[in-house]
Backbone:
């Protein structure tokens, strides 16, 4: 028995190392595939080690076999069948699923622990049967230690917030509910209020563990808190929220590790927690917003800025695909700056065709990627990768800004706030200080957009009214197709 | 005693996490996120233990919770790794 326990923990340790190597691999394009497979190997190993403890796994085998079958089928089909453009939504759902699992595990253990602790007969039976892992520690100590209950409460709260938070992030991304930021103070009150209630029930279950209902009351409050947490946050801030929820799901797993005294959960969970936090920070920096402002839906106080009419009146020049094709004839350097509009109209394949066509004529084409363009970290990179655009053509914001003045034509496709020069020049603007791609410094800017409607920041964009800017109104994909045809005709 | 040990492991793992991920190229933000997300499905271990040890003199309620937990954790694990692999495959094939 002693030997078995030890060998299991050694194998868990190997699984933890595989996770660390796996995440390490994911930080370089060349090693990323291997990294992901290492992570998968770690996961299979951790599961196998758990299942090998046959005495413990036997009694309720049908429960976990059923769960594995259902979960595998659902997860696999979702990952294989969903369109690449739905990636942000899908990742959000998987994330929520993990949070819910952590919440359920903590709840089930709480029922077991408080039930077992209350019934000496069951403890005796457990000792007799040599029940392992979590129960051993508990029974040896002569009762469940306080910190186990605290970890249970934490696991429940974080897991539940992750679940409903991710679910509502999914609804916002699918635009099943409005993506506009909401500043209604009731929402903040709801968020704080339910969190406080959840914490109170947490204290109840720590002090009176036999009150098993307290866990579920806590869970319900935390679930509500997750809803209120995401509701006020605008669609443009989704990259931050998704990274943060990703971090939460790791922390929930970590807390669950403390509940069941399992090191592999603690290690893997905290790795994910840390990686999510770093991504969150990167996203916040890229938007020049504090995490606090994002979470509470605060936009900088706007002094009554100029209205859209004042900015745009009489200064907007529209253009046609034919005209743009002509301008592109003489261009030597072209930079394409995609935004969320490219994702919406699924224009990435046409964009690639256009880019390749220009390249074949000797034009130098690059893509300028703003870190928060789209709805999740790296959204544009995934879309363009799907369309087989080589990643050495994708340039980061800082790199593009270094050579933007030598660019002859800059095509802005469905991006708005991330190319708004107000971020650089107007200290009174709500987006003042936000790093932008300085497309306005290019020789000619062609903006492809459906209308002059504002982006998520809700402000007019002086770029559209600039002398070197031409507006080409229309759906991103259709406009790009027309442009490509005009180019080919002109040949 | 055991708890202090776990707390130590936790703190060290957090630092390792920060160390590894401080310089990720933006190209890989999405795969990193979804790969890390799949790893957070490690809660499957807890779910399996709950489900397996469920019929120890208690109602099927805990077993059913275990079943749900295994199901959702498994969706996270399988879906997470599969979708990350699909994304990374796209990044791979387009070398010029």
Residues:
């Amino acid at each position: 028995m002693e030997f078995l326990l030890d060998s299991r923990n050694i194998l868990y340790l190997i699984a933890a190392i595989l996770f660390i190597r796996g995440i390490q691999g994911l930080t370089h394009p060349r090693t990323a595939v291997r990294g992901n497979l290492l992570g998968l190997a770690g996961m299979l190993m951790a599961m196998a080690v758990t299942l090998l403890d046959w005495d413990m796994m036997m009694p309720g085998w049908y429960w976990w076999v059923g769960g594995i079958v259902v979960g595998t089928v659902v997860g696999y089909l979702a990952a294989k069948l969903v369109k690449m453009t739905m990636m942000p939504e899908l990742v959000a759902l998987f994330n929520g699923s993990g949070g819910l699992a952590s919440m359920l595990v903590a709840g089930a253990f709480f029922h077991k622990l408080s039930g077992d602790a209350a019934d000496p007969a069951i403890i005796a039976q457990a000792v007799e049967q040599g029940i392992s892992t979590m129960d051993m520690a508990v029974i040896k100590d002569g009762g469940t230690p306080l910190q186990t209950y605290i970890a249970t409460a934490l696991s429940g709260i974080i897991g539940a917030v992750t679940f409903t938070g991710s679910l509502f992030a999914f609804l916002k991304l699918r635009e099943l509910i409005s993506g506009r930021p909401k500043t209604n103070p009731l929402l903040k009150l709801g968020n704080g209020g339910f969190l406080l209630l959840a914490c109170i029930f947490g204290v109840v279950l720590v002090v009176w563990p036999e009150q098993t209902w307290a866990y579920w009351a806590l869970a319900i409050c935390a679930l509500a808190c997750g809803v209120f947490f995401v509701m006020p946050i605008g669609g443009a801030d989704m990259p931050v929220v998704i990274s943060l929820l990703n971090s939460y799901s790791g922390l929930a797993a970590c807390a669950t590790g403390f509940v069941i005294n399992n090191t592999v959960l603690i290690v893997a969970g905290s790795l994910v927690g840390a990686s999510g936090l770093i991504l969150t920070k990167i996203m916040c920096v890229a938007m020049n917003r504090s995490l606090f402002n994002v979470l509470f839906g605060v936009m900088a106080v706007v002094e009554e800025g100029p209205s859209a009419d004042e900015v745009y009146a009489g200064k907007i020049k529209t253009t046609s695909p034919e005209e743009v094709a002509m301008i592109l004839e003489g261009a030597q350097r072209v930079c394409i700056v995609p935004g969320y509009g490219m994702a919406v109209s699924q224009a990435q394949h046409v964009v690639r065709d256009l880019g390749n066509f220009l390249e074949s004529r000797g034009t130098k084409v690059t893509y300028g990627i703003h870190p928060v363009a789209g709805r999740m970290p790296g959204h544009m990179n995934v879309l363009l990768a799907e369309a087989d655009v080589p990643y050495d053509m994708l340039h980061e914001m800082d790199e593009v800004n270094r050579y933007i003045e030598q660019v002859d034509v800059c095509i802005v496709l469905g991006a708005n706030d991330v190319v708004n020069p107000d971020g650089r020049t107007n200290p009174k603007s709500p987006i003042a200080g936000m790093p932008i791609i300085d497309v306005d410094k290019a020789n000619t800017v062609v903006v492809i957009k459906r209308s002059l409607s504002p982006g998520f920041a809700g402000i007019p964009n002086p770029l559209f009214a600039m002398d070197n800017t031409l507006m080409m109104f229309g759906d991103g994909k259709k406009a790009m197709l027309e442009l490509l045809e005009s180019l080919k005709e002109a040949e | 005693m055991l708890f202090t040990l776990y707390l130590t492991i936790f703190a060290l793992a957090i630092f390792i996490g920060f160390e590894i991920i401080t310089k990720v190229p933006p190209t890989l933000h999405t795969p990193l996120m979804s790969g890390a997300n799949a790893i957070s499905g490690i809660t499957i271990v807890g779910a399996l233990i709950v489900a397996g040890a469920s019929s120890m003199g208690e109602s099927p309620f805990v077993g059913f919770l275990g079943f749900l937990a295994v199901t959702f954790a498994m969706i996270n694990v399988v879906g997470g790794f599969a979708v990350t692999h699909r994304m990374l495959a796209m990044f791979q094939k387009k070398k010029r």
